[in-house]
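Troubleshooting: if your tokenizer reports a length mismatch, compare against these two reference records.
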Amino acid sequence: MKVRKIPMRTCVVTKEQLPKSELLRIVRMPDGQVEPDETGKKNGRGAYIKLDLEVLKKAEKSKILERRLECSIDEDTYLKIEEIIRKKRGEEK
């Protein structure tokens, strides 16, 4: 039986190499809009962040996602990302 290779990606905040399934891709679309990419297949410049609320808060405070995606990110986008992380982690507000 063939063993499948697990795709690994690096979190831009913690610099940890993790399986792609444990990360969330944030993408800057060609039109400049920033949004979370749950499928991992949207077209545009992407950055991966660990599915952890502490890591998200650190990213928001240090503005590392804004530097990596080379654009500004509004508060609503961070709230959408937080909601997706909570959903994937099985947490409720």
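Reference record two:
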Amino acid sequence: MTGTLVDTCVWSIALRGGTSKDTQIAEELTQLIDDHQVKIIGAIRQELLSGYSDKQSYERLRAKLKFFPNEPTVDADYEAAAEYSNFCRTKGIQGSHTDFLICAVAIRAKLKIFTTDKDFSNYCKHLPISIYELN
């Protein structure tokens, strides 16, 4: 694996914190950042920034996220995401378009996915994705 694609939910936990589990996730993300392993895609960046209606907070987060260039997405990723969505639906598994785009990019780029979203454990049953495990 050449890096870790960090899902929106992990970024959100790290940004807001709270519980000891949140602290562990934030520390793990910090370690990945320090090791230059963190990857992000435009859809995740958009989801993160969409959570801030206060312009000043939005700009602060936008500036921080600029440190992480987007992992490229290509047309084939969107096609694969649609294929994965259709396939998983035949298995009774629903998911968001962004989730399946994350899966498609991770598979193509050979990235692990760092997420707390339990839907990904269902996707793992049918897609060749690798979930990042907390140390």
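Descriptive notes for reference record two:
- The radius of gyration is 15 Å.
- The beta strands are 4-6, 38-39, 112-114, 130-131.
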